[in-house]
Amino acid sequence: MPPRSSTDGQIPLPLVNTHHTGRSALTCRYRCGDACFHEAPNTSGNSYFGDVVASAVSRRSLLRTTAVVSLGVAGASAMAVPAVADPDGRGWQREPRGLRFDAVAPNRQDAVVTAPGYEQDVVIRWGDPVLPGAPAFDPRRQTAAAQAEQFGYNVDYLALLDLPHEHRRAVLVANHEYTSEQIMFAGYDAANPTREQVEIAWAAHGLSVVVLDEERSGGLSPVRHRLNRRITATSELELTGPAAGSSLLKTSADPTGRKVLGTLNNCGGGVTPWGTVLSGEENFNQYFGNADLVTDPTTKARLGRYGLRGLASERKWERFDKRFDVAQEPNEVNRHGWIVEIDPFDPDFVPRKRTALGRFKHEAAEPRLTRDGRVVLYMGDDERFDYFYKFVSKNRMKPGTSQAARRHNLTLLDEGTLYVARFSGNSPAAEIDGTGKLPSDGAFDGSGEWIALASGRTSFVPGMTAEEVYVYTRLAADKVGATKMDRPEDVEPHPRTGTVYIALTNNSDRGAAGKAGPDEANPRTRNRHGQIVEVEETRDDPAATSFRWRLFLVCGDPSDPSTYFAGFPKDRVSPISCPDNLAFDAHGNLWISTDGNALGSNDGLFGVAVDGRSRGLVKQFLTVPIGAETCGPIIQERRILVAVQHPGEVDGATVDKPGSTWPDGPGTIARPSVVVVTRSGRGNDRIGEE
Ligand code: FEO
Ligand code: CA
Ligand code: CA
Question: Positive or negative CA dihedral for 401, 403, 404, 408?
């Protein structure tokens, strides 16, 4: 029996879907430049068979669980306490703390649907004022000047940090991944966008920093504050680290190779132990036009490996600023595809693109600390057949909040060693037949190694300089035989055990003609639903150069024999497809948001136990509106925050023919927004507890 449902109208699964991942064509076009409809850019012949985890407590989780949380009184719940069968057959037990709620069934409602007993509120919407004096949002009279002072579009990552010395306040850092022009602008003509529309889109990208008041109910509301700021596609950022100043990063507008305008397509992120926020530039390639006019074979190959192709770009930005024209400014594209670090506590801080962390389609950057205080970042490159990376800093973090400590810690991500992962399975290759059938040893598992690519100005990759390794990291990883993965998205170290969890979203091309076939870490051909990998570093040392790994979940409808839920009874789990962003709660449960549910339901947020007798128990906590993706989950004791990205982004949708009218209802424009969920009328009660 599936988990008890909180919604009627459960839909039969799986539904026929015409797209590779369950996304709409509109999402594919605007979000990643139709990446799945093109050849995957990794055509390298490197061995793909292999495998890939972390010690100190994840500061992000600490920050998330300590930020603005005042532990409430856990009152008696009106909800029954669910019970689950003990997988060992030794009787019944209560569900683990944090997961005691009635699961939400798959559905297609144009709403955020939560488990019963919870209520929701919108914290901030696209277009809401961020800066003092910003005008109210008027969808029919949008201007670039207004948007530059308002909350941007499509949030992927959320960080919430405690605001020292200010009672019941926190700083929200949100990124704005991309714009969906068809459903932003009435009458939008994709062949002929206007300058104003393009400039609004530039202003709707980037980052927002917004201070929030914590209400007694547990809700959150934006306030005017000196820390509130917007970073857009035209803000000035700094390139730092070993490739900064390289000739590969110089343009006609920036002969120093150290100053860059804007940050684009920011996806997952992370919070550093010193309280800054990291954000990964992902599908930056789609903003650049005229790659096909480039004739130099080396440049062409480099562009191709990052998915740059064709003439006019989807949004035609190259018509309005020549830096987006690759034929005119071939190096501008090299200045995107980095991890950006921002200090939200300094309103004048110039965000820094950290070249030591490599250039690829960055998904997230999650830290651990070594026992001696060096920082390790885990990073995914979200593309079919691309790689999983880590960075180990050379220097140790200085604890404390003094100016000297802050200055020092802001240099940590500029010096260190960049590695890429190779996964090896421990079962005979013949037993990995592409169906998802477990091998005879009962697990998709094995060992792995971290292959060093570069450290400081030293390259470990034959034929490439260190600068080339940092700027063309994908090409460097190709040469050393990294393992081709099924789209590595978010990564999250367990705050207590240090085990690192990686979400691999899907890979419709796995095993296709001419493509890499299944391996033990990526065991399904035509993988539509993705998997989650656990990585444990040797000796629990995040700086180790080897690790053990195993698959924790092989996602999909539990009735599908190719799925695996860590051995938990499949008839008691929620269907889950396309895991994307990850977060831990204070109890050590992993929370997973999905992007592109290929089972026909709206995307959602799921909690799953990772240890104990309920290990593998997956429960859906909420679903997001039609066309939307669930992003940025933050799981605190008393509240959950999610970003609802691209509501209404379905095939054929426009402003006048909307696919969704969430959050404000019929007659209004869909607005990507941040949502807070708390216990109904019980602002002090904890999430997922009786
Ligand atoms: Fe922006 Fe890979 O999701
Ligand atoms: Ca095995
Ligand atoms: Ca993602």
Answer: positive
Q: Is the CB of 490 within 6 Å of ligand 1?
A: no
- What is the DSSP pairing of strand 384-386 with strand 374-381? unpaired
Taking a C-beta distance cutoff of 8 angstroms, is the pair 375, 273 a contact? Answer: yes
- Categorize the per-residue pLDDT at 54 as very low, low, confident or very high, splitting at 50, 70 and 90: very low
Q: Mean pLDDT, to the nearest integer, of 459-488?
A: 98
Does 156 sit in the ligand 1 pocket, CB within 6 Å?
Answer: yes
- Cα(206)–Cα(227) distance, integer angstroms: 16
488-498 pLDDT per residue, tens: 999 999 999 99
Please enumerate, as own/partner, the contacts of 323-327 that have beta carbons within 8 Å and a separation of 24 or more: 323/251, 323/253, 323/261, 324/287, 324/288, 324/289, 325/288, 325/289, 325/290, 326/288, 326/289, 326/290, 326/291, 326/293, 326/294, 327/290, 327/291, 327/293, 327/294
Buried b vs exposed e over 339-373: b needs ≥16 C-beta within 10 Å? Answer: bbbbbbbeeebebbbbbbbbbbbbbbbbbbbbeee
The model's confidence at residue 26, banded by pLDDT at 50, 70 and 90, is confident
Rounded CA separation 643/177 (Å) = 11
Q: Cβ(287)–Cβ(202) under 8 Å?
A: no
Q: How many whole angstroms from 269 Cα to the centroid of ligand 3?
A: 9
Tell me which ligand sits closest to the C-alpha of residue 23: 1
**How many helices and strands (H and E) does the chain possess?**
8, 35
* Residue 300 included in any domain: no
pLDDT, tens only, 333-343: 999 999 999 99
Q: How do beta strands 236-240 and 352-354 pair?
A: parallel
Residue span of the structural domain in which 134 resides: 25-282+337-679
Pairwise CA distance, residues 230 & 127, whole Å: 12
Atom of ligand 1 nearest to the CA of 267: 1
Q: What is the pLDDT of residue 68?
A: 22
- On whether residue 481 sits in a domain, the answer given is yes
Q: Which atom of ligand 1 is nearest to the CA of 31?
A: 1
| Residue 51 counted as domain residue | yes
Please tell me the residue having the least CA distance from ligand 1 atom 3: 267
- Whole-number Å distance, alpha carbon 281 to ligand 1 midpoint, is 9
Please write down the HEC assignment for all residues of 544-595.
CCEEEEEEEEECECCCCCCCEECCCCHHHCCCECCEEEEEECCCCCEEEEEC
- What does pTM read for this prediction? 0.91
Asked if 489 and 504 touch (Cβ cutoff 8 Å), the reply is yes
CA 424 to centroid of ligand 2, rounded, Å: 10
Closest CA to 630 of 294, 155, 132, 303: 155
Ligand 1 binding pocket includes 177 (Cβ within 6 Å): yes
Report the separation in Å between the CA atom of 266 and the middle of ligand 1, taken as the mean of its atom positions: 8
Cβ 267 under 6 angstroms from ligand 1: yes
For the Cβ of 489 lying below 6 angstroms from any atom of ligand 1, the answer is: yes
User: Is 422 domain-assigned?
Assistant: yes
Question: Which atom of ligand 1 is least distant from the CA of 282?
Answer: 1
Beta-ladder partners of 675: 122, 642
Per the prediction, the chain carries an average pLDDT of: 90
Number of structural domains, the chain? 1
C-alpha 535 – ligand 2 centre gap (Å) = 14
Residue 503 Cβ < 6 Å to ligand 1: no
Among protein residues, the one with the nearest Cα to ligand 1's atom 1 is 267
Indicate if ligand 1 lies below 6 Å from the C-beta of 282.
yes
